[in-house]
Amino acid sequence: MRNWSCFDLTMIHTGTRPMDEKSVVIFGAGRIGRSFIGQVFGVEGYRVVFIDTDVALVNQLNRRGEYPVIIKGPGGEEKITIPIASAIHSKDRPGVEEAVRDSGIMAISVGKNALPLVAPAVAGGLVQRENRYPGRPLDIILAENMRDAAPFFRERLKENLPEGYALDKLVGLVETSIGKMVPIMSEADLAQDPLQVFAEPYNTLILDRLGFRGTIPSVGAFALKDHIRAWVDRKAFIHNLGHAAAAYSGHLKVPAAVYMHEVLSDAEVLGSTRSVMQESARVLRVVYPAEFDSGSLEAHIEDLLERFRNIKLGDTVFRVGCDLARKLGRDDRFMGIIRLAQDVQQPYERILEAMSKGFLFRATDEKRLMFPADEEFLRDFENNPHRVLEKVCGLNSRGDQLLMTRIIEYYNAFKRV
Questions:
Q1: Rounded to two decimals, what is the model's pTM?
Q2: Which CATH fold would you assign to the domain 4-226?
Q3: Which helix or strand (DSSP H or E) is residue 26 part of?
Q4: pLDDT score of 200 more than 70
């Protein structure tokens, strides 16, 4: 896991460059940053600049000036080589700020917890940009699957910008729905080429049209939406929900299975996963009637189930299900849609059942190790389930007593199987 706290450090950096309208600066050269955001802009001829905390990765990117994306489709593989202009280490604060200052557009793909850590460097670059190019806005694509990413990052920027900086006029904060699936690279794959990343063929970047302040780039992969909240929720509460439900049901039914396509080859697991996704879709239709209808969501579910079963992608049950405290957390894929269902008085029993299976998830990685925090999480749940349901899942012992009871009943029933 990358340590973005090193944005507090600085190094000497020299050199200047003019603004390049067809350039993109991407915070985060991880799997999504390279396989999706970098690819989306790279194939359109953009000058791609990465900023990352991994010294070895930054050095390798600079040494080669390109990286391969291996598209793992059901029909075979395709290799795409993405040229890059440069990579900057996060400790090079002047270099980072200069890159922000001169960029045509920017993207951030570092994870919610790291957003506050990159904000000071971004803010520094924005101040320099206004000094050098007065009145020129910068659009920042927030390539994070999170609700309210724009107001969250806006507040982090405000904390680091001088009083009087016209943030809402000069900075577009563009929320996204990131639907591309990218598997964990095995040690063998990284040994073959440490810069290569695998990804599925899906390459649509859903963005908030209303978030832009400058001219919206003409990029083939862009799918612009006027009501981004609905599409962020569709990603969280159908895609993410269904994926995790399949992992939890699959691990319980076929504990020795390694890959998602293995567990979804079981008719019972496939059927229960589909039911969970369909139950969630019915909630979303009620919440967002102007955005979704039953036909479009049903087609989306079937498309996702096909993508989940992509043998070539090699996506693991471990990757899809691990990090339980986050995925079973109060605002994430299970509890988020349960709260929405309660708000609009829609059933959520299948979702609750799938969530309960998560408390029995013990899949391991290629080294046969569980996700470190999951061991403690499951131990805590076994010792005091009510406390975990309150502290992690956001349930209230008074108002949510029935919900807590149902989860524990399901858990005990599945534990005996």
A1: 0.92
A2: Rossmann fold (3.40.50)
A3: strand 20-27
A4: yes
